[in-house]
Design goal:
α1 packs antiparallel against α5 and α5 packs parallel to α8. 34% of the residues are buried. By secondary structure, the protein is an all-alpha fold. 71% of the residues lie in helices and 0% in strands. The termini are far apart.
C-alpha cells in the first residue's frame, strides 16, 4: 500500500479521483460535441458536474454514516469504506439532475436540456465506469477502501484455511480492468452505433456493472456487513438495484420509442388522407 500524503494533503487515492474527474469531464465534453450540444449546454455539463461533486461529497458522508448505523446500530461518521462511493454517486446524480433541469431550463435555449436528456444519459453511461476504474487503481495501491491490506486487495480466499486469509488476489485491479472494458464498449457504441441503430447506453452500464458486481461479491473473503436482505451483502444489494434499474430504464425507453413511432405513423396517415382529398 502507498497511503502517504503526496500533494496538498492528498494521497494517491485522492489524486486518482481528481484525475478521474478531469478525464471524465474531458470525455463528456467530446461526447457532447459529437451529439451537437450547444455551447451553453456544453458549459452546463461542466458546471453541473462540479456542482454535483460538491453535493456528492457531503452526500457520501451521510450515506456512510447510515451504512454504519445499519451495521453497528450507531449513527456516526467514521472512516470511509467502499460504500462511500455509492453514497457520493447517488447524491451526486440527484444533484446533477437538479442542476440539469433547474438551472438548465433557464440557462439554455429551446428547452435543450430536456431534448438532450437521453444523450446526456448515454454520456454518463460511458464516463462513470471510466472514472470509477481510475478510482479503483488508486484503491489498489493506496489501500484506502477499508484501511488495511486485506481489505484493500479484497482478500479473496483462493485457499481456505481455518483461520485468516489464503492467497491474496488483486481484485481491485480486476475491477478496474472490467470497468475500463465496459467504458470502452459503451464509447464504441456511442460513436459507432451497431448498423446505425441507436439504443440507450445507460442500461448497458447499469446491467453490465451490476452483474459483474453481484458475481464478484461471492469471491470476497471479508465481511461486508448486514442489509435489509439477509442473504445479500450491501454491494450485492446495490448490484441488484442497478440491474433492475437498468431493465426499467430500457423498458421505459422502448415504450416511449414505440409510442412515438405509432403517433408518427398515425400523423403520416392523416396527412396522406388530407393530400389525397
Amino acid at each position: 500500500m502507498y497511503n502517504k500524503t503526496l500533494f496538498l494533503d492528498m494521497g494517491l487515492y485522492e489524486l486518482c479521483i481528481v484525475a478521474a474527474i478531469l478525464v471524465a469531464l474531458l470525455v463528456a465534453d467530446k461526447m457532447g460535441i459529437k451529439r451537437g450540444f450547444s455551447v451553453r449546454l456544453q458549459k452546463l455539463v461542466i458546471y453541473g458536474a462540479f456542482g454535483a461533486i460538491v453535493i456528492g461529497f457531503f452526500g457520501a458522508i451521510l450515506f456512510q454514516a447510515f451504512y454504519n448505523y445499519m451495521d453497528t446500530g450507531v449513527f456516526k461518521i467514521t472512516k470511509r469504506t467502499g460504500m462511500t462511493f455509492y453514497g457520493g454517486l447517488l447524491f451526486g446524480a440527484a444533484g446533477y439532475l437538479a442542476i440539469w433541469f433547474g438551472v438548465g431550463k433557464k440557462y439554455c435555449k429551446d428547452n435543450e436540456p430536456i431534448k438532450q436528456l437521453s444523450a446526456m444519459a448515454d454520456i454518463a453511461a460511458a464516463v462513470l465506469p471510466l472514472a470509477h476504474g481510475i478510482g479503483r487503481i488508486g484503491c489498489l495501491f493506496a489501500g484506502c477502501c477499508h484501511g488495511n491490506q486485506t481489505d484493500a486487495w479484497y482478500g479473496i480466499k483462493m485457499d481456505t484455511p481455518d483461520e485468516g486469509y489464503g492467497k491474496f488476489v488483486p481484485v481491485q485491479l480486476f475491477e478496474a480492468l472490467a470497468l475500463f472494458a465496459l467504458a470502452g464498449i459503451i464509447l464504441w457504441l456511442y460513436f459507432k452505433p451497431i448498423k446505425g441503430k441507436k439504443f440507450p447506453l445507460l442500461p448497458v452500464y447499469m446491467i453490465g456493472y451490476g452483474v459483474w458486481r453481484f458475481v464478484i461479491e461471492f469471491a470476497r473473503g471479508d465481511s461486508r456487513g448486514k442489509t435489509i436482505v439477509p442473504f445479500l451483502s450491501p454491494s450485492q444489494l446495490i448490484a441488484v438495484a442497478l440491474i433492475l434499474g437498468g431493465i426499467a430504464y430500457y423498458l421505459i425507453w422502448y415504450y416511449y420509442k414505440k409510442n412515438k413511432k405509432r403517433k408518427e405513423n398515425v400523423q403520416d396517415e392523416q396527412d396522406g388522407s388530407k393530400t389525397s382529398v
